[in-house]
Design a protein that fits this description.
By secondary structure, the chain is an alpha+beta fold. The structure holds flavin-adenine dinucleotide and magnesium ion. Flavin-adenine dinucleotide binds next to helix 1, helix 6 and helix 7.
Length: 311
């Protein structure tokens, strides 16, 4: 998935042999490979690429896993006022091409791509298990959800193989299952957004996911100006440089992945949406007047053991 996946498990070697643990870990990695082959837009034969070759109103039967994940993303699009939207692909492609050509898209190109975006133009038929697009030239990109989903699937495979305590980290999309040891919870760090060698947050979690999205790992440059790979599906433009990063804690990693991307689009307004979920929290880093600032969802410090470094 263009990233590094790390799996750690904690076992009692007297009850659960090391070889069995290695076997469980290998199975979890096999599952991640399987997910990548299905969800990658970088692979011509993936199920997602096949969906992306559909013409307007042409239907395709899809597997249950893909159907359910797309269905879940549509629910999150609704709940985030369209800030998270997998139909953003025409805009992702447009801005990627603009980065390569070192020329921003013109108004016509932007308008045309924007006209092909909108989660309400995807239709899922629950009984026939089919998908179709209501407009020509549409496409989907699960880059903001499938890494988290892969993390959840890896955790599920570990659990099915008798592992009770594990930490899976797919390039920043993490899930903490159980505990690190009898006495300690898993402790995860969020990298400082401007200094790779420093942590900005440390948080202890149990049976929770935490995912971070931001401008510092992936971006492109046009005319010497950095642009985020996260695009506001409602305006067609990459998000501005006011939002630096967003970390979201949620019950599963796919949800945290989507909400972290949405928080980057929504900025401080996103906190209301996070609150509405009832079981999610967020840490947002913004920049203004040359300074970084961190905001956190209400009550997060009461719910979690957090240590914070200066920004
Ligand atoms: P996130 O914030 O979680 O997601 C941002 C990504 O989602 C963007 O890169 C874009 O693709 C999309 N997006 C942008 N704006 C929005 C929005 N408003 N709503 C919804 N989605 C949006 N990278 C490679 O370099 N090579 C590969 O072969 C490769 N294969 C991959 C296979 C899979 C199955 C997946 C899931 C990812 C793969 N990637 C690959 C990485 C991918 O290109 C993205 O860079 C990555 O998923 C972004 O994750 P993130 O956590 O950095 O950002
Ligand atoms: Mg994300």
């Amino acid at each position: 998935m263009g990233t590094i996946v790390q799996i750690r498990v904690s076992i009692n070697p007297e009850k659960y042999g090391e070889n069995r643990a290695r076997d469980a870990i290998n199975k979890a990695f096999e599952e991640i490979d399987r997910i990548e082959n299905i969800y990658s837009v970088y692979k011509y034969d993936s199920e997602i690429s096949r969906i992306n070759r559909l013409r307007k109103n042409e239907r395709l039967q899809i597997t249950d896993g893909v159907f359910n994940l797309i269905d879940k993303t549509l629910d999150y699009s609704e709940k985030t006022d369209g800030a998270f939207d997998i139909t953003v692909k025409p805009l992702v492609d447009l801005w990627a091409a603009a980065g390569k050509a070192n020329r921003p898209p013109d108004d016509y190109e932007l308008k045309r791509a924007l006209g092909r975006v909108g989660y309400k133009n995807i239709a899922l038929d629950k009984s026939a298990r089919t998908i179709y697009f209501k407009k020509e030239g549409m496409g989907i990109d699960l880059g903001g959800a499938a890494k988290g989903y892969a993390t959840d699937r890896a955790i599920r495979i570990l659990e099915e193989n008798g592992i009770d305590n594990a930490l899976v980290n797919s390039g920043g999309d993490m899930y903490c299952l159980g505990k690190r040891s009898a006495r300690e919870l898993w402790r995860v760090g969020v990298q400082h957004p401007r200094d790779r060698n420093r942590l900005f947050l440390e948080i202890r979690l149990k049976d929770k996911a935490i995912d971070t999205s931001g401008d510092y790992e992936r971006y492109f440059v046009i005319d010497g100006k950095r642009h985020s790979h996260i695009i506001d599906p409602r305006t067609g433009y990459p998000i501005g440089d006011n939002v630096v990063s967003a970390s979201v804690i949620a019950p599963d990693s796919a949800a945290a992945d989507m909400l972290a991307t949405a928080m980057c689009v929504l900025g401080e307004k996103g906190f209301d949406i996070i609150k509405g979920f009832g079981d999610a929290d967020a840490v947002l880093v913004t920049s203004g007047a040359g300074r970084l600032k961190a905001d956190m969802s209400e009550g997060i410090r009461e719910r979690y053991d957090i240590s914070q470094e200066r920004l």
